[in-house]
């Protein structure tokens, strides 16, 4: 990292930003977060993301789609802020954000692609 931060410190800053984002946009943060900075990607794995209501909804296929749609919508609303934070931390330009949720295990993966 150019600003004197170690890779580990930058990864910690990223997972802190993702936790704060979850709290602000989803109403609660994940139980566990890990972030990994690769040469042109940032990978974030979040565990324990679903609320009790979402876990109940996810017992049916329609409910799974609802949970995923709501979570996608919330990520879309906060996308600019989240990408900006990751850009600032990594000192790179975030060119893409990709995410998916596995409702069976309550995990989400977010991938940021960097220029």
SSE order, one letter for each helix or strand: HEEHHEE
Described by strand count, sense and barrel closure, the largest sheet is:
4 strands, antiparallel
CATH topology: Threonyl-tRNA Synthetase, Chain A, domain 2
Quote the distance from N terminus to C terminus.
15 Å
What is the helical fraction, as a range of percent?
Answer: 40-55%
| Alpha-beta classification | alpha+beta
Specify the CATH architecture.
Answer: 2-Layer Sandwich
Q: Looking across the biggest beta sheet, what order are the strands in?
A: 1-2-4-3
The number of domains = 1
Mean pLDDT: 93
Portion of residues in beta strands equals: 25-35%
Q: For the CA atoms, what is the radius of gyration?
A: 14 Å
Can you count the beta strands? Answer: 4
Shape: elongated
Q: What low-confidence regions span 5 or more consecutive residues with pLDDT below 50?
A: none
Helix count, DSSP H or I runs of 4 or more residues: 3
CATH class: Alpha Beta
């Amino acid at each position: 990292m150019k600003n004197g931060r170690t890779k580990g410190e930058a990864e910690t800053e990223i997972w802190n930003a993702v936790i704060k984002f979850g709290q602000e946009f989803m109403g609660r943060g994940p139980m566990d977060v890990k972030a990994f900075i690769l040469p042109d990607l940032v990978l974030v794995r979040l565990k324990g993301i679903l609320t009790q209501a979402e876990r109940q909804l996810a017992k049916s296929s329609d409910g799974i789609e609802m949970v995923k749609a709501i979570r996608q919508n919330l990520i879309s609303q906060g996308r600019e802020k989240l990408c900006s934070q990751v850009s600032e931390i990594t000192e790179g330009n975030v060119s893409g954000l990709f995410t998916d949720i596995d409702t069976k295990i309550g995990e989400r993966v977010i991938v940021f692609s960097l220029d």
